[in-house]
Automatic annotation (TrEMBL):
Protein name per the record: EamA family transporter
Keywords assigned: Membrane, Transmembrane, Transmembrane helix
Highest taxon, organism lineage: Bacteria
Keyword field contains Glycoprotein: no
Originating species: Bacteroides ovatus
Pfam families per UniProt: EamA
Transmembrane segment boundaries: 7-34, 40-60, 67-88, 94-114, 121-136
Domain EamA residue range list: 5-137
GO CC, alphabetical: membrane
InterPro entries, A to Z: EamA_dom, EmrE-like
Presence of keyword Transmembrane helix: yes
Length: 137
């Protein structure tokens, strides 16, 4: 059951990630700034996830030692998202999204070659398919 649930969540995730450029570009072309687009996106996400968390009984409490890490990761995420929207305004969205989503490939390669993470056939296949897909662009 967990496998099916995981596959369904992955499908929803990939669908929403795939539609984000469409909606973002639509708003950018309508005259919204990148900052406004991200503010609306994160505002809606904050409300939805807060409601979901409350209904699930999740605690949002952070330890003092974790606050700085969460703040730093949040800032990095903000810079990443803002940069991607600026890229959408300057190059084709498909190219910008492809470049943006190559970071898991870079992380996999760094982990394998610098941190000696075990190389599996599936990971190597995924790396190859990522490079092949990027080459098709």
């Amino acid at each position: 059951m967990n496998r099916i649930k995981g596959i369904l969540y992955a499908a929803v995730s990939s669908s929403t990630f795939g539609l984000a450029p469409f909606f973002s570009l639509t708003l950018l072309l309508a005259g919204f700034s990148a900052f406004e687009v991200l503010s609306y996106r994160w505002g809606v996400a904050t409300i939805a996830l807060t409601l979901f968390g409350w209904c699930s009984g999740c605690s949002f409490r952070l330890e003092k030692k974790d606050f700085l890490v969460v703040l730093l990761l949040s800032l990095l995420r903000a810079v990443t998202s803002f940069s991607l929207l600026i890229a959408y305004q300057n190059i084709a969205t498909g190219v910008a999204s492809t470049i943006h989503f190559m970071y898991p490939l870079a992380v996999s390669l760094v982990m394998m070659y610098f941190f000696q993470e075990k190389k599996s056939l599936w990971v190597m296949f995924a790396v190859f398919m990522s490079l092949f897909g990027a080459a098709l662009l």
